[in-house]
Known about the structure:
The protein is an alpha/beta fold. The chain is globular, with a radius of gyration of 19 Å. It has a single domain, classed as Rossmann fold. Strand 1 and strand 2 (about 25-35) form a beta hairpin. It has 13 helices and twelve strands. It has a six-stranded mixed beta sheet with strand order 6-7-8-3-9-10, with helices on both faces. Strands 2-1-4-5 form a four-stranded antiparallel beta sheet, with helices on one face. A two-stranded antiparallel sheet has the order 11-12. Helix 4 packs across helix 6 and helix 6 packs across helix 7.
Amino acid sequence: MNKVVAEHQGYLMQATDATIQFGGLRAVDSVNMNITAGTIVALIGPNGAGKTTFFNLLTGIYTPTEGEILFEGRSVSGKKSHVIADWGISRTFQNIRLFKEMTALENVMVGRHVRTKSGFFGATFRTPSFVREEKQIQEDSERWLEFVGLIDNANDLAGGLPYGAQRRLEIARALATEPKLICLDEPAAGMNESESADLDRLILRIRDELGITVFLIEHDMKVVMNLAEYIYVLDFGKLIAEGLPAEIQAHPAVIEAYLGQDMEATIKAKRQQLLEVRGAIAAPATEPAPAEDVEVEKPILDSDGVVMAMDTDNKEKNDAA
Ligand SMILES: Nc1ncnc2c1ncn2[C@@H]1O[C@H](COP(=O)(O)OP(=O)(O)OP(=O)(O)O)[C@@H](O)[C@H]1O
Ligand SMILES: [Mg+2]
């Protein structure tokens, strides 16, 4: 075992002084963070704190300008997103990214292709092994839809599904890559109380039944406090606190930065923003509104024409703009 792996044994993910600088802004600033396998860990903090950017570092969308992030002892720096997905990290996005003109089942099948072998040749000539594999992919994908409670929507277009269902579909697609670590970026955003309670149960089942480690960004404190076993708090790119939920709730720096006097106003503003987003999406069922929040992405194909990943780059640039 090499030195790096030995040093980081025991942690599934370890960030050491992880930093990314955009011009003068250190969006993630010297962050140290450990995730133990089998836990549910939350990352919280005010808007613009650097939470999504940290996910982007972890999943290969950005490369740290300083420091390092290790997954099972291997550095993610400079690795492409599909390689990191192959290592076992998958994610969902703050702004839902589904192929909305494809069915729910097809969306999950795209995720499943990360774990398959038949390349362009097999697909073009529909070799027996390709046909077998395709059938297997479909069956596996149906199981993931079942797991998240969407099997009855398998043939519905993703873009026409209610908002909460789209969020769960994204989770199914992420699970279909068979991750060791699933990163969920505000999965409860825009959900009503009952959808959010369903989501809590789903996240617990992901850890308890599938043994997948969960890394969760969430503004909904009820969800965070219900689920997280350990919490990291970011503010202006810096880690300002970490600890057990009870410790975080009582932490002076957190109260000041996030849960303090402005808590009510912050939550109110966030809720308003999410309801607006939701309203735009939940509009008429027959003709889905052009929801700004729902991104249609193009798959990135490898040289064999196999879908390797989503085209996230453009979106991230737009997000930043
Ligand atoms: N590619 C980029 N170029 C320049 N600035 C960026 C880029 N990506 C993120 N930022 C900036 O980094 C900061 C952190 O953004 P980030 O999206 O990570 O925040 P967040 O904690 O996820 O907030 P929210 O709760 O609103 O989602 C913001 O000031 C954002 O504008
Ligand atoms: Mg974010």
